[in-house]
Protoporphyrinogen oxidase
Amino acid sequence: MSPANVLVLGGGLTGLSAAFHLARQLPRAANITLLESAPRLGGWVRSDRLELEDGEGGRGSVLLEAGPRTLRPNSPALLELVNLLGLKDELVTVPKTAPAARNRYLYLPPLTLLPSTLLSALLTPFTPALRPLLPAILREPLRRANRPQGLEDESVDGFFTRRFGAEFARRFASALVHGVYAADARELSVRAAFPSLWAAEERGRGSVLLGLRAAGREPAEDVSGYDVGDVGEAVEGVSVFSFREGVEAIPRAMEGYLEKQGNVRILKRAAVLSVYADEGDFKVPSIELPPSASNPTHIISALPFQSLPELLPDPGLPFLIDHSEYSTVLLLNLIFPSFAHPQGFGYLVPRPEGGYGAANDGPGVLGTVFDSVALGEQDTLRGVTKMTMMSGGPYKRRFGEPYLPEFLAALREHLGTSVPDPLYHRFVLQKKCIPTPQLAHTARISQLRQALGERPYAGRLELVGAEVGGVSVGDCVRQGREAAGRVAEMVRRGVDAG
């Protein structure tokens, strides 16, 4: 029986993970083509090393991230990938006891250290900035269950308002959403964006905190089905991690592996215009594709949903996939001469009291990461302070030429101290980089999966990515692995039947 032809659309983390695991599971039973429209793989993950002087004659390098900069060790699929790619010796870890793990701030104002545990919350001085925090936390387990009967979803803001109060939701829930989704908590689906919170309320019989406490007593996710090697031991007691050359070490290593496989072909600067489903295979008209990719038996699409209505001319699918919204983020990487600032991971800025349209929005800063505190080990240039400011998202500002003094003024205001002129800075505009699931998103995804399981697709078309199963690096890696497993199983069944 001739090999199956599998086409993977999208060379970001999810698509790369899918191709990587397909190549491992089907070294001879499938031809795999990975298609990416950009000139590089990795998607939003981008790590750049910059040679720089410190202003006093010293030279060295710093690592700049244009996408995710830290990873959590709670994803077995991610730990497995680190092991399989041989990246363990490249790890840069942040222990749970480190300031970057324990100290996180909110600009309320002023810049305020958040309690890291319930005990520390009880012992925290009752400052005006934290006044809504402690009473809201203490009252929540005592509140009666108040989810309306039959409610299937609600906004993150509505969820926190219902359980903790409106001011808690504005100050703390909006900041949480700024840090993860760069979005408006009033528009984001809690069930899609933070499913663990929705589940915690059910587990706690109405109380989110009691549900989270019960979940904390449950065993950690079983890693027995994953080949994590000794990476699990390497990240024991670790809060977050990265690599010496940044998060892009992962897609670079996957690309290197795939290039060595005889049954894998990677095409960059290449795209398809449409996909037609047949009973036996798919038709993918494109002058750029080899015959094996033009008539694939299986497709794994890791493309953003915004591109799918035109790609899949199926009257039933656009209704399910054409509801996606995205956040656009403007990043500002900053390298300063070393100066004193709070030692921690960074800070987030809540939604303004007057909303995002307030006249004093300024640059619309969502938060700032103190990169030197967490990942200073990546840099060889000493005597500098590295930070990254994030702006945009729900502020809906028009991104013209960024104005550096405006951002530096905001940073000085947030830190409450003077800030030196930077030795180096760069702005990176990431357009529509984070999907922001709206209400009823999980229901639409469920309907979409059902539709793809029926003919003419019959499970041969997989739609995966941040919009389907989560926006974290671990989520994306896991989805690619799972999709590859399902396709590999279908191919094996076809081989056995043949």
Remarks:
- The first helix runs from residue 13 to 25.
- Residues 4-43+248-324+437-497 form a domain with the FAD/NAD(P)-binding domain fold (CATH 3.50.50.60).
